[in-house]
Structure formats: structure tokens, C-alpha cells
């Protein structure tokens, strides 16, 4: 029997993530190409995990190896007791890529609350990635659906356009095709800018989640 709704709402501990990948062939290959950064944002803090390079940004935590970076990020989710992991197209790209890199490096990378690995499978026409004991909230299909039915109107569905047209936010600009060159030969200033870029993507994802997720939670309360 359902308890009566007293108007309260259980607070959800949310964290967003965004990754940057090494991409000398334009499209990165998770079996060969490193994940060079993981940006994250919550309502309390934000930062970037990376490895082996020198940064001057205080929010960047630099590990010695990519394996250590992946394991440190997984540990962050456990320490923070995260309920909801937010991404922008993470079903298709970020989460499967991170799991493939972890598998290739034999990293202890278990993002599920039950210490399970990321599970990705095709449902209908779309890949869905799930985390045991946590909600994975991918903002991209939400935005795509709301744009299709006319609830919002955006010119295209890239994160920078959606962030700008829905919330008035502004992302930094980095040419995706040149990330591998910044990683290989970039100065500290260039690496800092890449870290800034990764962090603003994570912040944009969190702000969009906070803007849209209440629609689903209110609908769930309504239908029980």
C-alpha cells in the first residue's frame, strides 16, 4: 500500500560526468585511445580527473596513470553515495567508453552502488547504459523528445546549443579534432583550457538535469 503523499520529496544526490578522449583518427577507439579527462559536477563541488600531465588549475586532480584515474573516479561515486549519474549522450558514448577503457586496462571500475560494472545494451533503436543501484539520467534523449513534441525549441541538439537556448548558458570552445594534439604537445595553458572545457560540459549537463528531471519525478508521483 502506498503511503500518502505529504508533499515532501526525497532529495537525490546527483553528479554529472563528461569525458574527453584521445582521438588522432577523429573518432576515438576505446580499445586503443585513452580517456584523458573525466569532468564532474554536483550541487556541492566540481572538478576534473586526469593523469600524467601538468595543470595549474586547482580543480584538476592528476593521477599517475589512466587506470588510477578511472579507479579514483569510481571511488568518488562510492564516497559521495551518489544516487543519480547524469550525462549528455552517456548512454551511447561516455559510459560504454569508460567501461571499455577499464576493461582494456584491467581497472577496478565499478560505478554501480552494488559494485557492478556498467551494462550497455540496445533497446529498440537506442543503446541504454545502466548502473546497478543508481539512476543513469541521460539528458540527450530527454531533450530530443521534448524538442520533438514542441515543449522546447532548439536549433540542434548539441550540448552547447541546448545549454545556450534553454538556459542561456555559454560553454567554452575547443576543436574536438585537436584534443589529441593538445594532449601530446600542448602547453600548461592549453591543457588548462581543455580542463576548463571538460568541466563546463559537466556543469552544463548538471544544470540541464536540474532543469528537466523534475518533469519525470512529478510524473512518477502523479502515476504512483
Secondary-structure blueprint:
Blueprint: E1 14-21, E2 35-41, E3 46-51, E4 60-63, H1 66-80, E5 84-87, H2 90-105, E6 119-123, E7 126-130, E8 135-138, H3 139-149, H4 159-167, H5 179-185, H6 188-223
Parallel strand pairs: 1-5, 3-4, 5-8
Antiparallel strand pairs: 1-2, 2-3, 6-7
Helix pairs in contact: 4-6
The helix/strand series, from N terminus to C terminus, equals: EEEEHEHEEEHHHH
Tell me the β content: 15-25%
**What is the residue-averaged pLDDT?**
93
> What would you report as the Rg, rounded to the nearest angstrom?
18 Å
Strand order of the largest sheet: 4-3-2-1-5-8
Q: Given the structure, what is the number of helices?
A: 6
Number of strands: 8
Catalogue the unreliable spans.
none
Describe the global form.
globular
- What's the helical proportion of residues? 40-55%
N-to-C span: 11 Å
Summarize the main sheet: 6 strands, mixed
Helix/strand class: alpha/beta
Q: Would you write up a description of this structure?
A:
- There is one protein chain.
- The protein is α/β, with parallel strands linked by helices and 224 residues long.
- It is 42% helix and 19% strand.
- The chain contains six helices and eight strands.
- The strands form two sheets. Strands 4-3-2-1-5-8 form a six-stranded mixed beta sheet, with helices on both faces. A two-stranded antiparallel ribbon has the order 6-7.
- Strand 6 and strand 7 form a beta hairpin.
- Helix 4 crosses helix 6.
- The longest helix has 36 residues.
- It is globular.
Question: What's the gist of this structure?
Answer:
This protein has 6 helices and 8 strands. With 224 residues, it is α/β, with parallel strands linked by helices.
Amino acid at each position: 500500500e502506498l503511503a500518502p503523499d505529504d508533499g515532501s520529496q526525497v532529495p537525490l544526490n546527483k553528479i554529472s560526468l563528461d569525458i574527453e578522449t584521445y582521438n588522432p583518427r577523429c573518432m576515438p577507439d576505446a580499445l586503443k585511445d585513452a580517456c584523458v579527462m573525466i569532468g564532474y559536477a554536483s550541487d556541492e563541488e566540481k572538478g576534473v580527473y586526469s593523469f600524467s600531465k601538468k595543470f595549474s588549475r586547482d580543480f584538476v586532480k592528476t593521477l599517475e596513470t589512466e587506470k588510477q584515474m578511472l579507479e579514483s573516479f569510481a571511488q568518488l561515486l562510492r564516497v559521495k553515495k551518489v544516487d543519480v549519474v547524469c550525462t549528455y549522450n552517456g548512454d551511447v558514448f561516455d559510459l560504454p567508453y569508460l567501461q571499455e577503457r577499464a576493461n582494456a586496462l584491467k581497472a577496478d571500475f565499478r560505478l554501480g552502488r552494488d559494485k557492478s560494472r556498467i551494462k550497455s545494451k540496445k533497446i529498440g533503436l537506442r543503446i541504454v547504459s545502466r548502473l546497478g543501484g543508481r539512476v543513469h539520467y541521460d539528458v540527450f534523449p530527454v531533450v530530443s523528445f521534448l524538442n520533438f513534441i514542441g515543449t522546447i525549441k532548439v536549433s540542434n541538439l548539441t550540448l552547447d546549443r541546448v545549454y545556450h537556448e534553454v538556459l542561456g548558458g555559454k560553454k567554452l570552445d575547443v576543436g574536438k579534432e585537436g584534443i589529441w594534439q593538445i594532449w601530446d604537445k600542448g602547453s600548461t595553458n592549453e591543457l588548462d583550457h581543455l580542463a576548463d572545457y571538460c568541466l563546463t560540459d559537466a556543469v552544463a549537463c548538471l544544470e540541464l538535469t536540474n532543469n528537466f528531471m523534475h518533469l519525470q519525478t512529478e510524473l512518477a508521483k502523479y502515476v504512483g
